[in-house]
């Protein structure tokens, strides 16, 4: 991928500062990455797998925290969201407060350098964060490898990693996460037709840590 400002912290700090101001003025929490169906897809999979509601769940790059709010509304009680942008965490705290979800834990954390506090998760969820890491102008390849190492350190053996990406195909993600993870299933995502060929605008996969 070509390097992009979308892979830098200053970009996201500025973006979430704007969203934080908009929330304070209008109550709008901002957009849901990959749309509402992306949250429904994750929750349906957790329910289908009968994941216990008290299982520790980590939302990597939580942004406005709306996914965590939906998980809480669906009965999940052990929820943690991290983001390296303090403005994103401020926004998600305000959203959490408005929704009355006191059981959501929010932390300013850089996933590429996780603190010791981040460990023992049964479920890790990523909607677009790995995509952003991949666009970093400064050694994106090294940062992708560090992402995988971090994931291995925070996710329990046999824990599940659910990733939604608009930059990577299934085959590419299988290659990126080949060390330490095995594919469990591909989740259905919206399809489009172009030039007589059918494709997917996003890829959603479930991995299991070996």
Automatic annotation (TrEMBL):
Catalytic reaction(s) noted: L-lysyl-[protein] + 3 S-adenosyl-L-methionine = N(6),N(6),N(6)-trimethyl-L-lysyl-[protein] + 3 S-adenosyl-L-homocysteine + 3 H(+)
KW Nucleus (keyword) present: yes
Domain Methyltransferase, chain residue ranges per copy: 55-185
GO-annotated cellular components: cytoplasm
GO MF assignments: protein-lysine N-methyltransferase activity
Coiled-coil segments on the chain, per record: none
Entry annotated with the keyword Nucleus: yes
UniProt-listed GO biological process terms: methylation
Domain of life: Eukaryota
UniProt keyword list: Cytoplasm, Methyltransferase, Nucleus, S-adenosyl-L-methionine, Transferase
Cross-referenced PANTHER family: EEF1A LYSINE METHYLTRANSFERASE 2, PROTEIN-LYSINE N-METHYLTRANSFERASE METTL10
Protein name: EFMT2 methyltransferase
Annotated source species: Alectura lathami
Lineage of the species this protein comes from: Eukaryota, Metazoa, Chordata, Craniata, Vertebrata
Gene label: Eef1akmt2
């Amino acid at each position: 991928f070509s390097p992009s400002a979308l892979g830098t912290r200053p970009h996201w700090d500025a973006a979430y500062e704007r969203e934080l101001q908009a929330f304070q003025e209008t109550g709008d929490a901002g957009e849901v990455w990959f749309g509402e169906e992306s949250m429904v897809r994750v929750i349906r999979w957790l329910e289908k797998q009968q994941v216990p509601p008290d299982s520790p769940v980590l939302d990597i790059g939580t942004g406005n925290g709306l996914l965590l709010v939906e998980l809480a509304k669906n009965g999940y009680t052990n929820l943690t969201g991290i983001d390296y942008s303090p403005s994103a965490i401020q926004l998600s705290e305000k959203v959490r407060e408005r929704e009355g979800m006191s059981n959501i834990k929010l932390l300013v954390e850089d996933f590429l350098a996780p603190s010791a506090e981040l460990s023992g998760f049964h479920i890790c969820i990523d909607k677009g964060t790995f995509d952003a890491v991949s666009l970093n102008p400064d050694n994106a390849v090294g940062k992708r490898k560090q992402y995988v190492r971090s994931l291995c350190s925070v996710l329990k053996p046999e824990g599940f990693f659910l990733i939604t990406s608009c930059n990577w195909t299934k085959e590419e993600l299988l290659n990126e996460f080949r060390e330490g993870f095995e594919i469990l299933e591909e989740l259905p995502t919206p399809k489009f037709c172009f030039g007589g060929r059918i494709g997917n605008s996003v890829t959603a996969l479930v991995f299991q840590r070996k």
